[in-house]
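Budget justification, computational time. The allocation requested in the original proposal was used primarily to generate structure tokens for proteins on the priority list. As evidence of use, we reproduce two of the resulting records. The first is shown immediately below.
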Amino acid sequence: MKQDTCTNEDENDELPPFAAVYAWVRRIPPGRVMTYGQISRLIGERLSAQGVGWALRASIRQADGLPWHRVVNARGGVSTGRLSLHLAAEQRARLEGEGVVFRADGTVDLSEYGWQPEV
């Protein structure tokens, strides 16, 4: 995964878990992705990878512009299909609109599109 410098990561320790998830998701650059597990580790595992998914599911209904679509599963796949096929198609379309290319198996190459902030 490509690395970028990211500052103020200690601020996430003071935020409630869902807010810490949202703070990291807002930092993901367009055309890049992170995994649920990465975000879990970045917030000190105060939520599991599944808990990160719950936080993002709650955010989808809000109109605050959170780029929830930039979070994928550990294989680089879209997991929102478990919630709704419409959401899965929307997530894929948003990522493709940012230049992310999906492989034939429906996953993205995390070594190419994964974002690893330098902490």
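The second record produced under the same allocation is shown here.
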Amino acid sequence: MWELVPRLLGDSRYLVLATADRQGRPWATPVFFAARDEDRLVWVSAPGSRHSRNIAERPDVAITVFDSHAPIGGAEALYLEATAGLADDPAAALTILNARLPASKELSGDDLAPSGPLLVYQADVRRHFILIRGGDPRFDNVTDARLRVTRPQERPPMDEPIHSIITSLDGHMNDNSGSAGPKEQA
């Protein structure tokens, strides 16, 4: 099920970024983005925009990525819990963003503060969830639900002692970090 994560991040141009201000008042906004990988997303925004001000006060964010043109009953969605803030490498983030933009819309260092109006932000993803549509024959759910997914673990090398493999598998089963976790209602 993890394969949906990189596919949706690669196919989608916009995410919905949910933030909250100091008093907890929510705000959601669409943002053009690029994924460095499945665990870090980047975008540019004006520091005075409501979502940027909210991130400065409360860096915990929720993100949804989905295709708004999907037919009814055919939706796929990715839900992310993340911590957002200013990008730790704005130049690298700009390169990733520009790879997704048409040449006429590419950003330059002049677009960024202090000479320009924008700052580069990043979201470091802590948890990934996918939409499980109601009635999905693989699951026992009548209504839509979300399922936590994690990156598949690499197999240990064959020359690794069997004790290490068993310990690794036991920890994997006990910490619920397998490819799928418990379902939550969407």
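A brief technical remark on that second record: The two ends are 17 Å apart (CA to CA).
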